[in-house]
């Protein structure tokens, strides 16, 4: 264990609010006969394994794939099960009443035209109204969804963005993902005032030309750096989000990115890998773009090394979080995505529609999707099935519910990721 993590754990051990939070979490789970103090210690250890813990506004960010601790959204997540009794058992077998996180693509509009965008294929022109999004948010919160992320497209192009953010009440953590478009100091403060906790700002490279080329916008790099600074000054928890291309998986290059992001206000750098979706479905030389096992291992090693450097931001990667060693892929089990026109997908990168929230309750649609998805998967679900999805859709995405159900049933996982296995 590195010095930074040891220091943060010691701070948590003497933090009155954190201690109260640990007691409250224990109180939620203790009614389950399968739960005991040893399981509790193991659960807490598994949550923080491989993570650099950050503190922001009195709350500890163990992983941004979970709500901050202690907080009402953290307890919301603990209680997000189908039956009021046996909460611990339901949690460790993935029997949830709602996803941990749900990302809402509140618009398909975007000023950028990124080379690996997943949101450009099969998008309908229709978008949900303000009132419809507010109703969806209420329904998700009533289901006990603990993280609600607003994405796109570019969510900051919507004039009602502050109203939509405000609709997320304290039961859930509100997040927003942006290129940094028009994130002035005033707008950042207004987002914070209306309840936004964290913001993810795209930063593809430490190199201005690379970032601008990816975005096809000569102002994109400077806009992103300014947005990071404005968000930090407004009091938001700031993440720089990077799609790390296979050709750029070098420690020295990534460390330059981490330092640049940290110097401009990022608390965390979140590394995503190119996923077989959107525009990449039409690419031919995918072996030069998509990761292999060795590439993911290399990125995870860089993540763990960077997280031992106190001066750098927290580094997180999907390669680690979705691996067998951690939580696995949560598409349709821990996570859900709603497109700009209201279709429910298992995740942002899996263009399968399980129905539309304007025609049926999100609670019903989630339960139907969750039932066919099964348990959390080891490795990215999109990478596994999107070629088949694209072939069956014949280019007309998203795939319909009947064919989506068939693919999901044929690709159910039989083995839980390690986080679950250790607690079972």
From TrEMBL:
Keywords: Iron, Iron-sulfur, Metal-binding, S-adenosyl-L-methionine
InterPro entries: 4Fe4S-binding_SPASM_dom, Aldolase_TIM, Elp3/MiaA/NifB-like_rSAM, Radical_SAM_PqqE_MftC-like, rSAM, rSAM_sf
Keyword Kinase carried by entry: no
CDD domains reported for this sequence: Radical_SAM
Domain Radical SAM core: start-end pairs: 96-310
PROSITE patterns: RADICAL_SAM
PANTHER family, A to Z: PQQA PEPTIDE CYCLASE, RADICAL SAM DOMAIN PROTEIN
Name used for this protein in its record: Radical SAM protein
Species, as recorded: Anoxynatronum sibiricum
